[in-house]
DNA sequence: TTGAAAGCGCTAACAA
DNA sequence: TTGTTAGCGCTTTCAA
């Protein structure tokens, strides 16, 4: 089953390969009648030019790589969707690389994508989200970025200056915290995430700032780390509910944790938002899956992916593109938060 | 920023390009000392061979395409995860192509992937899941499959015989239906899906069969089509609840619809499973996100992706591979189903 | 408006 | 054990 090539087409249409290439790409005028003839042969054989050969010579592959931690977390498919839409519009196909945040997989994929000569890489999670990450890992990324355009999404690496598209997560978290305080909550908790992950730390700091602004004490036990999954949210909430002096509001690092937290509370017979307010983060489809629906912060995940690819495309095209794009998050008030109950009423 | 090539390496290591290629691929013995020298130069320059050039000559690209309807539906990321794991183990990278079931996008991606010379394609949803699909679309797929390995996941096209990996969805649905009947339910409903989609029709027919086996009447109004989303589940449940004689159990085409349905019921003050039992399908993360947790049917989505890529790999390697792989679904009993309430007790 | 021919960066005979 | 060389299928000067 030999592949058909421009030579076969050229021969059958009695022209040269150059002409075939010209009608294929419209790079130079071709007499109408000749073009007709060539097109006919192309259609007849359902000829599809070999993009590998073309890429080899044009030095652009029309492929971009997207490295992300966990497509199983509903936030990431949404980012992908935004990225894909933009990519498709510009003729790129996307390699989706899932790393579970494992740095070894990140390294492997980084190398693989470079060998495949992708035109650029969008990088999410993992090493670009560590408070302290090994110099080795940073160097790898910088090295990669020296060969091809790389844009970071929702991350930041100490000592590494690469173009980024981010949501101002701290601002978003401040919104949610202030919302709770405005509702009368005085005793807040933060659950989920990891102290080693930038996105988590930013949120904790935002919470701390807002609490202090409002004259509320931020104690070390205000924060309970533990992870990003539903299961972890559930177990953390169980811990919180077992405490001596229960908080009236619990802020979760993301929607998944919030879902687990809400479930644990419901199981314990705690009324939400009557007795306890809960907030999520990201506004994924999980937020509206549960009852009560989650008050959460929208990152506009779709736009994040879209902007990242847009920027990448600019860089690929040799334009400068802005170093930093910040998307403003939005507080989405739903049913999981409410005024604090006045005891005795 | 000129790319480094085997020539540069060869020159600097004072050997021929053939030798460089040999140490790169281990295709022929190279004297240890020579290898050392070459490796050194390679490392020094962080040389990464151009996979495009290699693919061009080896006629294999190490890329596979995965076409699916909606990565935003939690079922599909799980399939992807299984596929990716298997792909990575065999050295492939995956192009993820999202079509929203639109046939035009499917066609575009099909063409794109062929041009890019992927080694094979995994196809899900859309045209392979239509009860009647245009001959044109079938031909396109067959055409594609005549050029490269294609495996269909959870689908089937009339008149098209391609290797498939599927879950026996009908069997799964029978399990769930029988479970409800065993719990004493006599008045069942099916909601969600589309009458034009095979996966939906199979489920409806399974339900019909089980009901008839158990001497229950299957009436046209047993079925309420409408789509696959949470929103649709919600509105369909509202319709059901407004009916004269409410059913005691509602079976949903998938977990998303079930989630919407449960929410609508809860909002209407209906107790689940006390007054109403609800089942989902797919056992996605949504099933355990809500309270009560969903009784549902597990498709083993991960295995689906895994097996598909495994089969694809066999085909790429020239092995035959089985025409049809059927995965057995499992009933997962959770909290959304229970015995029918005896009125008056 | 067209064709001849020189690569793109690699692998794999074939020779040595 | 190593080198020479002919492609893989395409685009793109350069010349006609």
Throw out a few tags for this protein.
DNA-binding; six-stranded parallel beta sheet; alpha/beta; four-stranded parallel beta sheet
Describe this structure in words.
The structure is a homodimer of 345-residue chains. Chain A is an alpha/beta fold and 345 residues long. The first copy, chain A, contains twelve helices and twelve strands. Chain A has helices at residues 6-13, 17-25, 32-45, 51-58, 75-89, 103-115, 135-147, 169-182, 198-213, 230-241, 255-267, 301-316; strands at residues 63-68, 93-98, 120-124, 150-153, 164-167, 188-191, 223-224, 249-252, 277-279, 296-298, 324-327, 330-332. In chain A, the strands form three sheets. The first copy, chain A, has a six-stranded parallel beta sheet, with helices on both faces. In chain A, strands 7-6-8-9 form a four-stranded parallel beta sheet, sandwiched between helices. Chain A has a two-stranded antiparallel ribbon with strand order 10-12. In chain A, helix 9 (198-213) links the parallel strand 6 (188-191) and strand 7. In chain A, helix 6 (103-115) packs parallel to helix 7 (135-147). At the A-B interface, helix 4, helix 5, strand 2, helix 6 and helix 11 of A face helix 4, helix 5, strand 2, helix 6 and helix 11 of B. Chain A binds a DNA duplex (16 and 16 nucleotides) through residues 3, 5-7, 15-22, 24-25, 27-31, 34, 49-59.
């Amino acid at each position: 089953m030999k592949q058909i090539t421009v030579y076969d087409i050229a021969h059958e249409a009695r022209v040269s390969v150059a002409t075939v290439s010209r009608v294929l790409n419209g790079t130079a005028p071709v007499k109408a009648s000749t073009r007709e003839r060539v097109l006919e042969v192309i259609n007849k054989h359902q000829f599809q030019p070999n993009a590998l050969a073309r890429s080899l010579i044009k030095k652009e592959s029309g492929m971009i790589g997207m490295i992300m931690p966990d497509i199983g977390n509903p936030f990431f498919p949404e980012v992908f969707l935004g990225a894909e839409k933009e990519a498709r519009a510009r003729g790129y196909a996307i390699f989706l690389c899932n790393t579970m945040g494992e740095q070894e997989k990140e390294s492997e994929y980084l190398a693989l994508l470079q060998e495949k000569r992708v035109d650029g890489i969008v990088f999410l999670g993992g090493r670009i989200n560590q408070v302290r990450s090994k110099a080795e890992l940073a160097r790898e990324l910088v090295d990669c970025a020296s060969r091809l355009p790389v844009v970071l999404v929702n991350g930041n690496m100490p000592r590494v200056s690469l173009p980024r598209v981010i949501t101002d997560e701290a601002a978003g978290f401040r919104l949610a915290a202030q919302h709770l305080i405005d509702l009368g909550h005085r005793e807040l908790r933060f659950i989920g995430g990891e102290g080693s992950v930038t996105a988590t730390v930013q949120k904790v700091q935002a919470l701390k700032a807002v609490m202090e602004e409002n004259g509320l004490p931020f104690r070390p036990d205000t924060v309970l780390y533990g992870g990003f999954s539903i299961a972890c949210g559930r177990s953390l909430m169980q811990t919180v509910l077992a405490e001596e002096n229960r908080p009236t509001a619990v802020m979760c690092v993301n929607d998944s944790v919030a879902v687990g937290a809400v479930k644990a509370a419901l199981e314990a017979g705690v009324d939400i938002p009557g007795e306890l307010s809960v907030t999520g983060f990201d506004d994924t489809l999980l937020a509206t899956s549960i009852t009560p629906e989650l008050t959460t912060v929208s990152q506009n995940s779709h736009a994040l992916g879209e902007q990242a690819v847009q920027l990448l495309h600019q860089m690929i095209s040799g334009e400068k593109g802005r170093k930093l794009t910040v998307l403003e998050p939005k507080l989405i008030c739903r049913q999981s938060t409410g005024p604090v109950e006045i005891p005795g009423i």
